[in-house]
Design brief:
Strand content: 5-15%
Helix content: 55-70%
Order of helices and strands: HHHEHHEEH
CATH architecture: Orthogonal Bundle
CATH superfamily: Winged helix-like DNA-binding domain superfamily/Winged helix DNA-binding domain
Oligomer: single chain
Largest sheet: 3 strands, antiparallel
Shape: globular
Low-confidence stretches: none
Radius of gyration: 14 Å
Number of helices: 6
Length: about 100
């Protein structure tokens, strides 16, 4: 059975995925044009625009982050919203400090 720790390392291996996580740390500061509440996260379309790459590429990166447990998604109407999973990130950092 694969180690979830390894999935997180693989997800963090790509610079754009690390950048997305950094943007999601301060959603209001990085996505001020979002018209609805930040409570459930940032609309995938907003992330697409900020990345400057194909929508399908951004979707694949978001899916990788979600599979690794680093972001959560929530659907509101037609929008898919993404948010950092702060608890999962804290647990990963704690495990990392114990292993190294």
């Amino acid at each position: 059975m694969p180690d979830p720790f390894d999935a997180i390392f693989k997800a963090l291996a790509h610079p754009l995925r690390r950048e997305i996580l950094a943007w999601l740390k301060d959603p209001a500061g990085n996505f001020p044009e979002q018209s609805h509440s930040y409570e459930h996260g940032i609309c995938a379309g907003q992330i697409d625009q900020r990345c400057g790459v194909a929508q399908s590429t951004v979707s694949a990166h978001l899916a990788t982050l979600q599979r690794a447990g680093l972001v959560t998604s929530h659907k509101v109407g037609q929008w898919h919203l993404f948010k950092r999973d702060e608890a999962a990130l804290a647990q990963f950092l704690d495990q990392l400090s114990r292993r190294l």
